[in-house]
Design brief:
globular; mainly alpha; 6 helices; Cytochrome Bc1 Complex, Chain D, domain 2; 105 residues
Length: 105
């Protein structure tokens, strides 16, 4: 019994250590996206912001649609498939949709 409790504790500790080293979606956004999209805006094209109504209007109001743009880019936005891994792309895309739903508050 003691051995299984020790192994479970060791496993949880290792998982927590790995998780704590992960970068949050907010951090990925701040590092890679905020220079153009701070607060859900768009300095390159103010008509195509990350606000919910704009995402809806432009047909990118789903996580999958945002993932496609983050992954492959869409001029003038560069592709991030070489600099972000799949988990980061997934999490930052979900973050964009979540923040759009909150009005970027």
């Amino acid at each position: 019994m003691k051995k299984s409790v020790f192994l479970a504790t060791l496993t949880l500790t290792a998982s927590a250590a790995v998780f704590s080293g992960a970068v949050s979606a907010n951090e990925v956004f701040d590092k890679n996206c905020a220079s153009c999209h701070k607060g859900g805006g768009n300095i390159m094209n103010p008509a195509k912001t990350l606000m919910k109504d704009s995402l809806d209007k432009n047909g990118v109001a789903t996580v999958d649609a945002v993932k496609a743009i983050v992954t492959n880019g869409k001029a003038p936005m560069p592709a991030f498939k070489a600099s972000l891994d799949e988990k980061q792309i997934e999490s930052v895309s979900a973050y964009v949709i979540e923040q759009a739903g909150k009005g970027w508050k």
